[in-house]
Design a protein that fits this description.
83% helix, 5 helices, Four Helix Bundle (Hemerythrin (Met), subunit A), mainly alpha
């Protein structure tokens, strides 16, 4: 159930966003959750760490499920997403900030790549 105006705004944004924008939103969410997970580990608030790292894992699973294997790059993306999941799980199990930071770097790189590709495609009249 959506109660706040902000939640309604977020839902409207997700429902009306283009595919590249949705991908960027997913990456933004994963980045936010990994950072909160790192905070939880550093604060020794393991419930916070677990909840947020699990949310980040759920987003990566969503990214995996959205891959289109008609394109060869999807296999490479799958490998990278699986490695990111591995890092997030290791970080959560061992409460290891280093593994979470590694996952964060990869997710941030993907986000920047998609943002740039989206800009280039928009400038060229695509997407």
């Amino acid at each position: 159930m959506i109660y706040s105006p902000y939640q309604k705004y977020q839902q409207a944004q997700a429902q009306t966003a283009s595919k590249p924008k949705l991908l960027i939103m997913l990456y933004d969410g994963a980045i936010r959750f990994v950072r909160a997970g790192i905070e939880g580990i550093e604060e020794r608030n393991y419930e916070k760490a677990n909840n947020n790292l699990c949310k980040a894992q759920a987003i990566i699973h969503e990214l995996i499920s959205s891959l289109n294997f008609d394109y060869p790059i999807s296999k490479d993306l799958l490998t990278m997403y699986e490695y990111i999941l591995h890092c997030l799980i290791e970080s959560n199990v061992r409460k290891d900030v280093v593994k979470a930071q590694e996952a964060l770097e990869y997710i941030s790189d993907f986000r920047e790549t998609w943002a740039e590709a989206s800009k280039l495609s928009s400038a060229a009249g695509g997407m």
